[in-house]
Design a protein that fits this description.
- By secondary structure, the chain is α+β, with helices and mostly antiparallel strands.
- Helices cover about 30% and strands about 20% of the residues.
- The strands form 2 sheets. A 3-stranded mixed β-sheet has the order 3-4-5, covered by helices on one side. A two-stranded antiparallel ribbon has the order 1-2.
- β3 (about 30-35) and β4 form a beta hairpin.
- The longest helix is centred in the middle third of the chain and has 15 residues, at about 55-65.
């Protein structure tokens, strides 16, 4: 398992409180870039006006810092491409009855 896979596992602890599923299975994580000093997570949210955006991005930073405490964590929140249910894992779709 490479570091990106391990970071993705750590991010599964971040739950979208409105949907009740983790952000990885929801398909909100677009990319992870790790350098010697920093881990940047590029992600989106289910809606641009998500009232929990500040909390969720802080939780992502915390999960990354727990994985790599000596690196800085950065969240790059983007809206292009927009999230759609098609990005969800088959397990998430099953849990939501999609």
């Amino acid at each position: 398992m490479n570091n990106n896979d391990k970071i993705m596992e750590a991010l599964k602890d971040v739950i979208d409180p409105e949907i009740g599923l983790n952000i990885v299975d929801l398909g909100l994580i677009y990319d992870i870039i790790e350098t010697e000093k920093e881990i940047t997570v590029t992600m989106t949210l289910t809606t641009p006006g998500c009232p929990m955006h500040t909390s969720i991005t802080q939780w992502v930073e915390t999960a990354v810092k727990q994985f790599a405490p000596f690196k800085s964590a950065k969240v790059n929140l983007i809206w292009d491409p927009l999230w759609s249910p098609d990005r969800m894992s088959s397990e998430a779709k099953k849990q939501l009855g999609i």
